[in-house]
Amino acid sequence: MKTSFVLFISLILGGIVGMRANNLTITNTSVSGTNITFQISWENSWNTNIAPNNWDAAWVFVKYQDCNTKLWNHASLSTTVGDHSAASPLMVETVGDGKGVFLRRSAVGSGNISNASITLKMTIPAGTYNYKVFGLEMVSVPQGTFNLGGVGSESTRYNSIVVDATAQSSGLSAASLGGSSVAIPNTYPMGYNALYCMKYELTQLQYVDFLNTLTYPQQATRTDYDPISAAYTHAFGTQAGSSYNNRNGIIILTPGSNAAIPAVYANDLTSTIENNSDDGQNIACNFLSPMDLYAYLDWAALRPMSDMEFEKICRGPMPAVANEYAWGSTNIYQVYNTLGGMTNVNTTTEKFSTVSNGRCAYGLGNANVAYGPLRVGIFAESTTGRESSGATYYGVMEMSGNLYENIVSTRNAAGAAYTGNNGDGNLTVDGSANQASWPTTSGMGIRGGDWYNAATYSRLADRTNSQWNNPNSRNYNVGGRGVR
């Protein structure tokens, strides 16, 4: 129902949480005045005061649609903690720009979060609106010294150096960094400072949610095929209309029109009935160019990960191990989507039954449309440890293999100029990120390896492709995630 100020919508949105893909849900949304209330649930939440001394959290932000113009906007939230409320065991952590909040455990503990009631205070102009509440699972990465670089045969690796408060405040020379890097100023996010990182690579459902808040011109920029294309046209890949394109099942469900009315997008990996449970919603989203990922991150009020932050998130404070992967060892076990032992394929519970240290999607060496990335968090279960789940020191998943991660490089001046400023929730008219210091023509890179290439590219310190200046190039083996 509409009121003079609001229309409320109940939503279940595509965040994925915990040590498995843990079905973050946001339900029972309602609005009263400037307050928006909802219930949030996710599994296997934690807050620990022993190593790695961190916690998980949900990054929650609100979009509102003007009922007259039909345009979606990013809602500002109060930066005063007392203006919000969260049921136990959660607390609200505000951010200075008011573009969202972090919901996390207020004390040491672990377990499921079940239908916790949350009320947030918005600061938006009066009007008649529709609302959507979005949630992304994040992992905290504490401030602290870490070891950068490789000590094995990793290609184009950084020199083995310590990044500490002095390095962050003074900058680093090209000679000290090595790895074909340029000199890095103290404004570049080196990984010393605290941050939050998306626990999982961006999923196909999350990208569909993003597309469905954009205008027609913005959608046209952020997909391979025009929004006016026929219903069930696949939005990405070279095989338009095929059953799937390297496991990307994002389709145009309802075509747009007149370059004005936007299309409606959906998940349909199995090409039967869209948005079924087996339509790949939680498979990592491939075919993301740097500009696609940057647009999503700006829209979600996050930012790109830096080249150096990639290594901090993987290694934490631990010493470097020669030729290690993101889980801290050289063990690796190849897994791919057509391999025997895969169960519940394409669903939210897609799983590989064999438990082995270093399970990783890598090395198929074939761009056949049947091959592609796996479900995010596929190897992590309640009984798995860091190596068998493929987790980083802090509990971030799939930083080795599955899809390459888009990062901001240190190998040229455009990347070195990056200051780590966060997105503001808004895009340009054509659907591009509009953030100063984010690279636009060069300064990009990819790291972490993928399902297609050899295991060597998945090594933690490997920087073979850390200069990859193709801002609009979409590839079947590239995706990404954001930080804040």
Commentary on this structure:
This protein is of the alpha+beta class. The chain has 3 domains: 25-141, no CATH class; 142-203 and 282-484, paralog of FGE (formylglycine-generating enzyme) (Alpha-Beta Complex); 204-267, no CATH class. It is built from 8 helices and 23 strands. The strands form 7 sheets. Strands 3, 4, 6, 7, 9 and 12 form a 6-stranded antiparallel beta sheet that branches. Strands 15, 20, 21, 22 and 23 form a 5-stranded mixed beta sheet that branches. A hairpin with a 7-residue loop joins strand 17 (342-343) and strand 18. The two termini are 35 Å apart. 54% of the residues are buried.
Keywords for this entry:
484 residues; paralog of FGE (formylglycine-generating enzyme); 3 domains; 6-stranded antiparallel beta sheet; 8 helices; 24% strand; disordered N terminus
Number of helices: 8
* CA distance, first residue to last residue: 35 Å
Largest sheet: 6 strands, antiparallel
Provide the CATH architecture of the largest domain.
Alpha-Beta Complex
Q: Kindly report the CATH topology of the largest domain.
A: paralog of FGE (formylglycine-generating enzyme)
Helix content: 10-25%
Average of per-residue pLDDT values:
93
Cα gyration radius (Å)? 21 Å
- The structural class is alpha+beta
Please describe the topology of this protein.
Blueprint lengths: L24 E8 L2 E13 L8 E11 L5 E3 L10 E2 L3 E5 L6 E5 L3 E13 L7 E13 L4 E3 L12 E3 L1 H6 L3 H4 L17 E4 L5 H8 L4 H6 L28 E5 L9 E4 L22 H10 L3 E4 H9 L17 E2 L7 E2 L7 E2 L6 E2 L25 H4 L14 E5 L4 H4 L27 E4 L30 E2 L2 E2 L1
Parallel strand pairs: 15-20, 16-19, 20-22
Antiparallel strand pairs: 1-2, 2-8, 3-4, 3-7, 3-9, 5-8, 6-7, 9-12, 10-11, 13-14, 15-23, 17-18, 20-21
